[in-house]
């Protein structure tokens, strides 16, 4: 089209090159590439040589003080920033990559997952919606997840940060299924009976938080006692539901746990499924780490009944050994899932062709519109290692827990405090003031850098809690834990 006499002249290529730089891409790609390889090699070295490092070490005050700086206004060389990371960040991580980390249920990650995360970052895809292949990859991995746990192929699913958000989504979907088209704010005016939910006293705290966020209140959560194996008491649950029905309330949700955070106990999921089917209550399973025990044939029977749940939350970043974060929510009734979250908006209008094509975008199934490509590192992990290898690693963790249980049984100064269901072992050093001594033992072990358990309370008693989740952990780390507990315990108890 001819240029108008009134229009300014279009800039030439020379004009553009001579103007101020506005792109953030490097001027020297070769230099960036060389530095990138150094950074990658450093992280591979970190993982390969992790056993030479302490599990964890306290952060020196001068290192912590470096984090009090102001916003950088001028550029720095990438190599300089990388050097700062290597000196003042990497050495002071929580330590879950290390085989001696047993404090909390954190996966160890893999080099493959790290590389996949790099690819996802380079692609920089937003998986909120639209027609692009990363969404199809996520749907593929959701179908794999459904196959692993026994859910139907048509179940809906979504990758989220972790089981805290996955459990929140499940509570919202269950709430909407119970209320129909009524909102929580209008349920009283509509004559809806107040909703009540049920879980064991060992349920993760995020469930109560989800009840609060969902507008139901944690006081609508009934915490049911557990049996000697720390599983929900089905008789007490049935009685609690009966009382609430008689009081004019509406039981709408039962949460079963596959791997409690304290002891790794697995509720009687088949029994819960039967009860929920009989009472017409939504059955949700929090399987944050335990659900993936389905990958180990010798452990899978412990989870019988999980496949009958209405919804299931679990994390690939725990026993799936995928780098953080990679949580999943699965919902049997895809339509109920979508009804809870899909809202129309002009800027999210769907088209028959083009980038806006497609329907049932991921944003229709959860609170996030901006979503990263979390599924890619799961896709890589399952493709590269295969589900059988992950199952063997999970089974090995449980074998190590049994080995630790045996070491405790043969050591008079140690006492087991809870049955070992999966991979979590709770025990203590016998002492005149056991709570104080065991708390001090755990801190001493963590500061030693050799192994890092945590503490919890079992029946009111402080316990040393060893959660064996890392695929790198071996008998050597278990023996180091026992030796450390005895050594520090003897020293502390004699003071």
Structure description:
There is one protein chain. This protein has 495 residues and is an alpha/beta fold. The chain has 2 domains: 125-385, Type I PLP-dependent aspartate aminotransferase-like (Major domain) (Aspartate Aminotransferase, domain 2, 3-Layer(aba) Sandwich); 388-493, Aspartate Aminotransferase, domain 1 (Alpha-Beta Complex). The chain is 40% helix and 12% strand. The strands form 2 sheets. It has a 7-stranded mixed β-sheet with strand order 1-7-6-5-4-2-3, with helices on both faces. A 4-stranded antiparallel β-sheet has the order 8-9-11-10. The longest helix has 23 residues, at 387-409. The N and C termini lie far apart (91 Å).
Structural class determined from secondary elements:
alpha/beta
Main beta sheet strand tally, sense and closure: 7 strands, mixed
How many DSSP-defined strands? 11
Q: What's the alpha carbon Rg, rounded to whole Å?
A: 26 Å
Distance between the termini: 91 Å
Keywords:
495 residues; alpha/beta; Aspartate Aminotransferase, domain 2; Aspartate Aminotransferase, domain 1; 2 domains; seven-stranded mixed beta sheet; four-stranded antiparallel beta sheet; 15 helices; 11 strands; 12% strand; globular
């Amino acid at each position: 089209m001819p240029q108008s006499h009134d229009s300014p002249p279009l800039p030439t290529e020379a004009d553009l090159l001579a103007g101020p730089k506005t792109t953030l891409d490097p001027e020297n790609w070769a230099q960036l590439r060389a530095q990138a390889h150094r950074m990658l090699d450093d992280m591979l070295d970190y993982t390969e040589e992790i056993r030479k490092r302490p599990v964890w070490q306290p952060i020196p005050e001068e290192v912590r003080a470096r984090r009090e700086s102001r916003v950088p206004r001028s550029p720095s060389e990438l190599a300089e920033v990388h050097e700062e990371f290597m000196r003042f960040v990497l050495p002071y991580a929580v330590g879950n990559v290390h085989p001696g980390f047993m404090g909390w249920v954190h996966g160890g990650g893999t080099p493959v997952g790290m590389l996949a995360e790099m690819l996802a970052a380079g692609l920089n895809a937003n998986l909120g919606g639209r027609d692009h292949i990363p969404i199809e990859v996520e749907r593929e991995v959701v179908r794999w997840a459904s196959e692993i746990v026994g859910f139907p192929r048509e179940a809906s699913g979504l990758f989220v940060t972790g089981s805290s958000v996955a459990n929140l989504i499940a509570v919202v979907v269950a709430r909407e299924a119970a209320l129909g088209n009524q909102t929580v704010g209008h349920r009283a005016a509509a004559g809806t009976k107040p909703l009540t939910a049920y879980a064991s006293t060992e349920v993760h705290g995020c469930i109560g938080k989800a009840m609060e966020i969902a507008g139901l209140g944690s006081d609508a959560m009934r915490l049911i006692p557990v049996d000697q194996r720390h599983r929900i008491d089905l008789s007490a649950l049935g009685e609690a539901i009966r009382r609430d029905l008689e009081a004019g309330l509406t039981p709408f949700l039962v949460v079963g746990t596959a791997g409690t955070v304290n002891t790794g106990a697995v509720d009687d999921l088949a029994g819960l499924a039967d009860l929920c089917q009989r009472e017409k209550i939504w059955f949700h399973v929090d399987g944050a780490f335990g659900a993936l025990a389905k990958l180990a044939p010798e452990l899978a029977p412990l989870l019988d009944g999980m496949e009958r749940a209405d919804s299931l939350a679990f994390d690939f970043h725990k026993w799936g050994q995928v780098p953080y974060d990679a949580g999943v929510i699965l919902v049997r009734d895809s339509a109920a899932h979508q009804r809870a979250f899909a809202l129309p908006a002009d800027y999210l209008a769907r088209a028959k062709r083009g980038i806006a094509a497609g329907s049932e975008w991921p944003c229709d199934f959860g609170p996030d519109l901006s979503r990263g490509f979390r599924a890619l590192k799961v896709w890589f992990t399952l493709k590269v290692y295969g589900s059988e290898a992950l199952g063997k690693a999970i089974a090995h963790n449980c074998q190590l827990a049994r080995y630790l249980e045996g070491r405790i049984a043969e050591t008079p100064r140690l006492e087991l405090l809870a049955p070992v269901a999966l991979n979590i072992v709770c025990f203590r050093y016998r002492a005149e003031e056991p709570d104080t001594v065991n708390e001090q033992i755990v801190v001493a072990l963590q500061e030693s850098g050799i192994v890092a358990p945590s503490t919890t309370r079992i029946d009111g008693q402080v316990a040393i809690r060893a959660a064996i989740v890392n695929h790198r952990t071996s008998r050597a780390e278990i023996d180091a834990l026992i030796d450390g507990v005895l050594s520090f315990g003897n020293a502390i108890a004699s003071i």
